[in-house]
Known about the structure:
Elements: H1 9-12, H2 18-21, H3 30-48, H4 51-58, H5 63-77, H6 80-92, H7 94-117, H8 139-169, H9 184-217, H10 220-240, H11 254-267, H12 284-287, H13 330-348, H14 350-356, H15 362-369, E1 370-371, E2 373-375, E3 378-379, H16 386-412, H17 420-451, E4 462-465, H18 470-494, H19 500-528, H20 545-569, E5 574-580, E6 586-592
Helix pairs in contact: 3-9, 3-10, 4-5, 5-8, 5-19, 6-7, 6-8, 6-19, 7-8, 7-10, 8-9, 8-19, 9-10, 9-16, 9-18, 11-13, 14-19, 14-20, 16-18, 17-18, 17-20, 18-19
Pfam families: PTR2
Family: Belongs to the major facilitator superfamily. Proton-dependent oligopeptide transporter (POT/PTR) (TC 2.A.17) family.
Transmembrane segments: 195-214, 220-245, 342-360, 380-400, 505-526, 548-570
Amino acid sequence: MAEEDDSSRWHEHGEGDASEKRKQGGFKTMPFILANDFCDRFATIGFNANLITYLTQQLHLPLVEASNTLTNFHGLSNLTPLVGGLVADSFAGRFWTITFGSVIYQLGMVSLTVSALLPSLRPPPCAAGEQAACARATAWSLLVLHLSLLCTSIGTGGTRPCVMAFGADQFELDTTPRHGEAGAGAKRGWSFFNLYFFGVELAKLAAITLVVYIQENVGWGWGLGVPTVAMLAAVAAFVSGYPLYVKVAPGGSPFTRLAQVAVAAFRKRNVAVPSDHGNLYQDKKLDAGISTAGRLLHTNQLTFFDRAAIVTPGDFDSSGIPLPWRLSTVHRVEELKSIIRMLPIWAATILLVTSASHNHSFAIQQARTMDRRVAAGLEIPPATMLIFSNAAMLGTLALYDRVLVPRLRRLTGRAEGVTHLQRTGAGLAISTVSNAVSAVVERARKRAAARHGLLDRPGATVPMSVLWMAPQYAIHGAADAFMDVGRMEFLYDQAPESMRSSAAALYWLTTSAGSYMGTLLVTTVHERTKGEGEWLQDNLNRGKLDRYYWLVVTLQVINLVYFVICAKLYTYKKLEVVDQESTGERREKHVELQPLKDSDEKDVELRPLLSSDL
């Protein structure tokens, strides 16, 4: 087995020593990265939050078609990050992937803003306020719309999988604990995630108040123009920090390595796996560029793939270099195992997105039918109801660290209170409650419409305060505070080091799959209920939207049971950490990345830290 002293691997890959590497990165890069992400999210949310209103009120699309257009757009926007993450990890690097994606996104926003300003690209206003007299948007108008949304989807593919990983890279330079300093890099990395999600929610809060107000009360030209300018500021902020960033070199296509392991294992499917895993192939020099924080250790799961690391005749070329499609190292085999083990957990989070997709479509249309006055002369725009979700998430994020974690720590003995998977499971359970509340509120709204003879007057205001919808949004925001941070921490922690952009892409791929599942669910329900009174129709007063919500709740309960089973069976990855003591000697520590108690934190390479640790 080829074993090399890895003390020189930094120099082999064009890197300096640890002290030299620490000259860049750190918190001094955060103003540029977080300013970029704040402006980016402000633009994205301002662009998307009220798009259902633009499609139904300005382009006069039917509600179901508009809802499916949005969910398909959101699905594509969260599918392209998988490609973007692969590009970043393979050859482009995260900085240039983010920059290119931001420029493409900017082009899409400019295109849609121009279409909102030009009367020739919009249908004329409805005659006498009657929906039947509304002229639908022309094919040319819809083509411009779809091309604009396509550009923003492609641009999103470059930014979403890379921004979080790029920010965490600024603190990943010292993830290997030094003597007497346990997990310093990990501490800063996990603090970054807390800051990241807090900044995202602040941006959302600003967008759904300021931008939505402009769209509803000033005009769509200004309403889309403001996010477009904000996106331009985001690009400028990010690029201006170029000299300060640590730019981790891509390690080659991670998916090619995974394919090589699978092919090599299949070729040796008839070879017996040795009982002593120490006989499997190792090569520190070969893995140096993709294991700078330590190599993955062998696990006893999915042992079929261990065959890829069994040395057989013909596995090396004439110069002694292993043929990658015939022989893989244990580290590379464990990369594939790590991804496979993560997939069942990842799949369980898809329904959370599906269950929340109506917050940007049907729930906004519900709010439009209700009494939105909160004070004399002050009326809440329907899309601004999302403010309750964002405010609840901000509050929950703050209270989680300051109030909940200290109490959970005393109960569980864990420094972080609960594991990533327990936090994610709590989010799934809370989200189920949110949709149950949505069903109850919608039932009450329909009864109010019936009492006042408004069942056949969809344009009339139902005498029921829109604030009755605030609890469902707030509960969903609290669920996101548990779910979003928990699943991102899990993916980043458990993903192989060389695949962290791709792991972040899995986070967004969850949203993509959830959006498409939302489209499938809405379409199926709409088609199946036509004969017995449509559940989902333009006239919500005659529809049965509450039954749709109860259907979603039922699916969520089933999904929660599935998640609990997967979490119980999940095995955390194991990592070999190389320490350098004050004597200059190097030693190896085998670390299983599970949440540990305070007394164990010296042995932890990655541990979620609280924002209070900053």
